[in-house]
């Protein structure tokens, strides 16, 4: 029997728009979008999401990788970064309905800016809590974040259900004996959740 449900945020509960962030960085720096994409420091981004570096250090890493002529300011960078997270999806309604009968947690690769500064995250007022990569020092699909999520939520893997849009994250959850669904569409999600909750 499923006791606890974990939802990913980006791509499931909220739409994400990396194209908007890149477009604004391009506008601010006068560099092409392709130039920015090519040099964006993904590993430093991952370190920021693990809480290993500060927001200021992350900004400096991005600026350092851009061509030397760029004039990007930290204020401009965070303005562009804020555009990454977009509007809520229909999955929020599904999640809120589930909170009436089950503890529901967020399990997300995210960073202090998007969790602590964004007004949009106040949407999630019915959930039990959240496990965020920057707080636990691990990010999906790394094994540790799932283990910590289960510990924090006080549930065994077999009695949990995890929902994420990325197959690599879903497969890691399954390898740890969690029940898991890859989010593809609202209709498929409703069907899959129904099957799991009947067990």
Write the SSE topology:
Elements: E1 4-7, E2 14-16, H1 18-29, H2 33-39, H3 42-49, H4 55-65, H5 74-82, E3 85-88, H6 91-98, E4 104-108, H7 112-117, E5 129-132, H8 133-136, H9 143-153, E6 160-164, H10 167-175, E7 179-182, H11 186-197
Helix pairs in contact: 1-5, 3-4
- CATH topology label of the largest domain: Rossmann fold
Query: Which structural category fits the helices and strands?
Result: alpha/beta
Record field, number of beta strands: 7
CATH architecture of the largest domain: 3-Layer(aba) Sandwich
**How much helix is in the residues?**
40-55%
User: How big is the Rg?
Assistant: 18 Å
Distance between the termini: 6 Å
Which of globular, elongated, flat, extended, rod-shaped describes the shape?
elongated
The major pleated sheet works out as: 5 strands, parallel
Give the SSE order as H and E letters. EEHHHHHEHEHEHHEHEH
| Full CATH superfamily name of the largest domain | HAD superfamily/HAD-like
Q: List the uncertain runs.
A: none
Give the spatial strand order of the biggest sheet: 5-4-1-6-7
Count of the separate structural domains: 2
The CATH C-level class name of the largest domain: Alpha Beta
List the total number of helices.
Answer: 11
Average pLDDT confidence is 94
Q: Which percent range describes the beta-strand content?
A: 5-15%
What does this structure look like?
The protein is of the alpha/beta class. It has helices at residues 18-29, 33-39, 42-49, 55-65, 74-82, 91-98, 112-117, 133-136, 143-153, 167-175, 186-197, and strands at residues 4-7, 14-16, 85-88, 104-108, 129-132, 160-164, 179-182. The strands form two sheets. It has a five-stranded parallel sheet with strand order 5-4-1-6-7, sandwiched between helices. α7 (112-117) links the parallel β4 and β5. α1 (18-29) runs antiparallel to α5 and α3 (42-49) runs antiparallel to α4. It is elongated, with a radius of gyration of 18 Å. The N and C termini lie close together (6 Å). The model has no long low-confidence stretch (mean pLDDT 94).
